[in-house]
Amino acid sequence: MVVIVVLLIGVLIGLLLAWLLFRRAPAPPPPPPPPPPRIPDQFDPPALSGALQTRLQGTTADGSAAVGVVGSQVIWVDAGDEVLVHLDSIQTRILDRLVLISVDLESDQTGRTPLIVSFALGNASDPAGLVVATDEFPRGDGRLAARWGQSVQAAVWASLLSLAQEHADERGKAPVGISAAPGTLTLHAGDFVKATA
């Protein structure tokens, strides 16, 4: 009887050891998904208007970020001249290979009036990369266009380029293009170009 008890205890210990050795550890939980990107791949006209409004707000005169700024107007100053930019007036229209952006400017001489910037881009099947064509001056009041038109064009294009750069940075890639199809502006990111010797 003692032999049977010892034998049973031995078998139980053997089974316990086998179970401990061959049992699988529970799989670790999967890592949490990455947060969704802040900059989407595509913009419709209202979303693009909002993104441009934020970027055209700019920085303060000392170069610091305009944190906590309330309001929808900024004053641009250049060579002693000033113009009031109505950020809440920004409207966009996205056509095939063309983006139109309207921004209201206001000066003492002209009152409030829109300047309309047009950018000719590529589309998904005919990408133009980060190259754009535009008019010499935006459409609108000639006095405002002559004095502030190229500044508006440069600011709006710089805003689009900063969107493309942030879009690519979030994906660990390089900005490679901006394209326009009716109702949709698309940002394209790709692999970094490596130079070989």
List the helices and strands and how they pair.
Layout lengths: L1 H21 L19 E2 L1 H12 L16 E6 L2 E15 L2 E10 L3 E10 L12 E2 L4 E2 L1 H29 L3 E8 L2 E7 L7
Antiparallel strand pairs: 1-9, 2-3, 3-4, 4-5, 5-6, 5-7, 8-9
Helix pairs in contact: 2-3
Structural key phrases:
197 residues, alpha+beta, six-stranded antiparallel beta sheet, three-stranded antiparallel beta sheet, 3 helices, 31% strand, elongated
Element order, helices and strands? HEHEEEEEEHEE
Chain oligomer state: single chain
Tally of DSSP β-strands: 9
Structure annotation, total helices: 3
Q: Tell me about the biggest sheet?
A: 6 strands, antiparallel
Shape: elongated
Name the poorly predicted regions. none
Measured by DSSP, the beta-strand proportion falls in: 25-35%
| Arithmetic mean pLDDT | 88
- CA(first)-CA(last) distance: 85 Å
Helix content: 25-40%
The structure class reads alpha+beta
Write down the Rg. Answer: 30 Å
Report on this structure.
The protein has 197 residues and is an alpha+beta fold. The protein has helices at 2-22, 45-56, 142-170, and strands at residues 42-43, 73-78, 81-95, 98-107, 111-120, 133-134, 139-140, 174-181, 184-190. The strands form 2 sheets. Strands 2, 3, 4, 5, 6 and 7 form a 6-stranded antiparallel β-sheet that branches. The model has no long low-confidence stretch (mean pLDDT 88).
